Amino acid sequence: MASAAIFSSLRRRRSPSLEAFLAPVDLSNAALLDTLRAISMDLLLSFSGKDKTPPYFQVKNSTSLIRKIQVISVLLDAFRDLGFSKISTTVFLCLKELYLLLYRSKILIDYVKGSSKLWLLLQNQSISGHFHDMNQEISTLLDVFPLREIHLSEDVNEQVELLRKQSRKSKLFIDKNDDLLRLKFYSFLNEFENGRIPDRKQLYSFFVEKLGICNVKSYRDEIEFLEEQVVNHDGDIEPTASVLNGFVALVRYCRFLLFRFEDEDGELGKWKRRTTKKGLITREIADTFITIPKDFCCPISLDLMQDPVIVSTGQTYERASIARWMEEGHSTCPKTGQMLVHTKLVPNRALRNLILQWCMANGIPYDPPENADYSSESAVSALPSKAAMEATKATAVLLVEHLANGTSRAQTVAAREIRLLAKTGKENRACIAEAGAIPLLKRLLSSSDACAQENSVTALLNLSIYDKNKSRIMDVEGCLGTIVGVLRYGHTTEARENAAATLFSLSAVHDYKKQIAQEGGAVEALAGLLREGTARGKKDAVTALFNLSTHTENCARMIESGAIRALVGALGCEGVSEEAAGALALIVRQPMGAEAVAKEEMAVAGLTGMMRCGTPRGKENAVAALLELCRGGGAAAREGAESSGAR
């Protein structure tokens, strides 16, 4: 019997056009007949057994195919009675082809039964075509099958001959009612495309009465399935990824419009256990634990490239990094050392698209600069359509309304859904902020409900990824202080870590670095998280401290808050040592910073050890820190460096 791995495409819920029609065969002798009978019996039981689950769509096509399998099953029983020794080579080859046919039939039937209702509706014509192809294959196989070589009973011969005639005459069948529903689904999207919100009664009739999508879980499943199709989308499949994004936004809007926020039935009680979710919903800051492909990282900054560009030598760099390199007066390629014959930077669209697809597949936020040139069709096809944007705006308004006026439970659910909606796409983040979510999320940060607090701070983290939202967050009176409060006293570890990550995101803006450092307890709390936090917490803390260190006026705060001691201690901690050395390299540029670092007993030893055994970036940071330390840290620092062998 075919292994379970062969059916992995069903678990991934991909279209059958690739996997289902390229099934491998490696069977011989009597095992072939046993396998054929097992597959055919499995197919028949899926429709007639006690646990049968008939498909919601493609009912006539599925039933017709199953009836044909019944006749084939009768033929296989006749072969079993004859005995394998009486089967010629020609018949055996035909049976192998029959195996392929049954295998593909099973994949197709399972796919129809296991897919989302809305996806089946969108693919109605395409899947109907697959069923028609199966009919044609049955007809072709029976035309070449040497039945005269086999002494079958008259009854079996008649059934097979009738099947051959029916298969030859069969025509493509597309259920008109199903297709009308498909067109209705598109009409709702067109309403949003034209700036109108579809009528609530029509949406209820379509989703609840006609499709039977009548609870929150069903909507979640449908949304998740469609999102997976966006991630796994092949360019030649309709609808396009952009249109699919529109349908995802439409279904999400209907989920909140029709079922509001009180039908979660225990969903909030599970929040602590739901650190990950199947599909697109993974942990925020997922790139902390995901290995980024080397080719996606800038050779200068070693970070994931947002706007990759090609220089004259053919090497690719992050635009901001190579531009800064050139502005500093360098005229050579950082990686190859070759002379740059010109300073023109050519966008590497192919690599940017690959990075975008990789980020989408791994649930990592990816916001290239707004002026990035997206002329590639594959990139454009994944961007939200106007319909998606309008549906998302309508959803954001519903969420914010409940965030403002709903019960405590409804507010918590709304915060969670904003968190998830803001996880991908700057358009989503912009819509949510423009709907007025940020002040209301700030209010929830002080909630005594741990779930509400965690979801609200994480929602702010996701919103802050969009540059324009950084100022919106900082402009809300008391918001920064409340985020720091969550960092210091948050109910859960994840809330405290995400508060640190939010500070890191906000500190990307130079004008906010000093403001964050001056906020009471902020730097102290980051230092504490760097000393005692989890691996993820330390990563969030050290990156935030690194950003704050880039502002020269923050040096005094880094000293008095204990951040320098925490950074020195982090030099020996895998995963954060590079950033710790980088922050120290910035701090020691200030005389008071160099003196403070020199007073730490393990500073020189830690930097020397990294210079010898660290990563390329770590070594660079360590050398820079040691150089400045020897210049400004006094005789004791120089002697310590010499005794450690740092020459």
UniProtKB/TrEMBL annotation:
GO molecular function: ubiquitin protein ligase activity
Keyword set, alphabetical order: Repeat, Transferase, Ubl conjugation pathway
Gene3D superfamilies: Leucine-rich Repeat Variant, Zinc/RING finger domain, C3HC4 (zinc finger)
ARM repeat placement: 436-478, 521-563
Alphabetical list of Pfam families matching this protein: ARM_PUB (PF25598), PUB10_N (PF25368), U-box (PF04564)
Domain of life: Eukaryota
UniProt domain U-box: residue ranges: 291-365
InterPro entries associated with the record: ARM-like (IPR011989), ARM-type_fold (IPR016024), ARM_PUB (IPR058678), Armadillo (IPR000225), PUB12-19-like_N (IPR057623), RING-Ubox_PUB (IPR045210), Ubox_domain (IPR003613), Znf_RING/FYVE/PHD (IPR013083)
Record EC number: 2.3.2.27
Pathway: Protein modification; protein ubiquitination
One GO term of the biological process aspect: protein ubiquitination
Catalyzed reaction equations: S-ubiquitinyl-[E2 ubiquitin-conjugating enzyme]-L-cysteine + [acceptor protein]-L-lysine = [E2 ubiquitin-conjugating enzyme]-L-cysteine + N(6)-ubiquitinyl-[acceptor protein]-L-lysine
Classification via PANTHER family: U BOX DOMAIN-CONTAINING, U-BOX DOMAIN-CONTAINING PROTEIN 17
Entry protein name: RING-type E3 ubiquitin transferase
